[in-house]
Amino acid sequence: MQKKYTRLVAAAALVGALVASATALTPANAAVPGIKTGLKIAIMPKAVNNGYFTAWNKGAQKACKEIGAKCTYLGPTEATGPAQVQFINKVIQQRYDVLVISAADQNAIVPSLKKAKAAGITIVTSDADVAAASASARTVAILPSASDRIGTAEVDWAAEAAGSKGSVAILSAAATAANQNAWIAAMGPYLTKKYPNMKWVGGTVDKSVFYGNDDATKSTEQFDAILAQYPDVAAIIAPTTVGVLAAAIEKKAKKASVKVTGLGLPSQMAPYIEDGTVEKVGLWNPIDLGYVAVYAAGRAKAKTFTGKIGSSFKAGTKTYKVVTGGIAYLGDPFTFTKSNIATFKTIY
Ligand code: RAM
Q1: DSSP string computed for 89-100
Q2: 44, 46, 143, 172: which to mutate for ligand 1, most atoms within 8 A of CB?
């Protein structure tokens, strides 16, 4: 009896020692301390066939490799909430650990996100968030920079191109997208205040927005609709990579004099910047945005990051802090002109 007990204790001690050494080894063995390896992560863009999200996913996959996660890029081909919901349901059924998502619709996907959360899936929004009132549906939002910085910068680019005079229209992605709405809201009063000789084509900013649904054909149609309705429009701001590219292509085809600016991928906009169709566009690095979102999600899953206001996390060499709204920002956007597009177009 005594012998048996001793053996058991010895066996237990051995197991204990093994566990202890395994624990001690974890940080060195893990790809990144503070994140569990082997996570199954879904990377869901507004739409898979958008070059911006191809770049975003590139950064996400880089982070996935570093943290030893298995990441799948999945989502709809049209940037709508209902289309995304079908894929969120898949993520739930297929028992993913983490969902990193750019919300095509700030409200329509919220019930599905809540279901996913209840199923134990850690959710991080990136690029486009859910509505502020539904912020509890995700752990944190990883966004490019403060919305007013992005919105007002675009107004400045439009004013610069149009000589600070004339009327301005907006060619947006969708009325359901939180990122678009936040930027447009910041543009409205800023143009009126800063540029006394400029105005919104429809009188107010809200009446000056046309929606191309982040679809090339629809965006081209809407560009044409702006010119038909407001023939002397001085500038069009397209705060979407799909919209601004469609606008540049159509401006060139129609030899239209309207100035075009907005948020564009340097790789897609290069030909139109180089030939002078467009003077300037701007954008952050979507690769970084995807990268940082995966780190935030991996740490949230391991509970080494809470997502609470004031908390912070590390992604690569940088540390990001969560501010009001449960948001961590990347930094200011870059601008692209003839002088630097050659470098940026090779990156994203
Ligand atoms: C489009 C999408 C995306 C936005 C960029 C600037 O690709 O609408 O959400 O962040 O443009």
Answers
A1: HHHHHTT-SEEE
A2: 46
Ligand 1 centre from 11 Cα, in Å?
58
Angle between helix axes 147-162 and 178-194 (nearest 10 degrees) is 50
Sign of the Cα pseudo-torsion (239, 240, 245, 251, in order) = negative
pLDDT of residue 332: 87
Work out the pLDDT band at 30, boundaries 50, 70, 90. Answer: low
Three-state secondary structure string covering 150-218? HHHHHHHHHHHHHCCCEEEEEEECCCCCHHHHHHHHHHHHHHHHHCCCEEECCCCCHHHEEECCCCHHH
Q: How far is CA 109 from the centre of its chain?
A: 16
102 lines ligand 1 (CB under 6 A): yes
Going by their DSSP bridges, the two strands 98-101 and 70-73 should be labelled as: unpaired
Q: How confident is the model at residue 84 (pLDDT cuts 50, 70, 90)?
A: very high
Distance 348 CA to ligand 1 centre (A): 13
Q: Is the pLDDT of residue 6 over 60?
A: no
317, two tokens: 């060499």
Nearest CA, atom 5, ligand 1: 240
Task: Dump pLDDT digits (tens) for 144-190.
Answer: 999 999 999 999 999 999 999 999 999 999 999 999 999 999 999 99
Cβ of 261 less than 6 Å from ligand 1: no
Say which residue the tokens 């709508």 belong to: 80
Q: Whose Cα sits closest to atom 2 in ligand 1?
A: 240
User: Residue 140: phi, psi to the nearest 5?
Assistant: -160, 160
